[in-house]
Amino acid sequence: MKLIGIGGNLPSQFGSPEAGLPQALRLLETQGVRIKNCSPFYGAKAVPASDQPDFVNAVAIIETTLPPEALLSILQAVELEFGRVRGAPNAARSLDLDLLAYDRVHTDSGLQIPHPRMHLRAFVPAASCLLWYGGISNPDGHIHCRRRASFFAAPRKARSP
Question: All domains of the chain, ordered by start, with CATH?
Fold first, then answer.
């Protein structure tokens, strides 16, 4: 399973984040990234807390034959096309595309997979549960998985032959 996080909290040339995020997904599809499914959009406060606008976020399951590093390059190129400026860490942005997971690949140098901070963003497990594990939303507003979400367990490093 390959997962990307998509979000933004500033307008782009496509309008508000709510209008721009679907455009970003369409652009990814022209770059060899097939969007299999996308969660609903979630509103979220900036992490860490700040006075910047709230984020609009989603998680998408994708298919691609691109290796992780090439996929990351495409994600960053799409961010640039949306006017993303990389400045201070955690700054407001028009588009944020994160490679959250790439099959069972686990790396911890350079590009880190799974994304080392995805557990800190409440929308990631909620959206992933809905997409992958048949989650259900209860009247209390909480999302519960029908199956154990072993995806979020710590990955094992591959052993050398």
Answer: 2-121 (3.30.70.560)
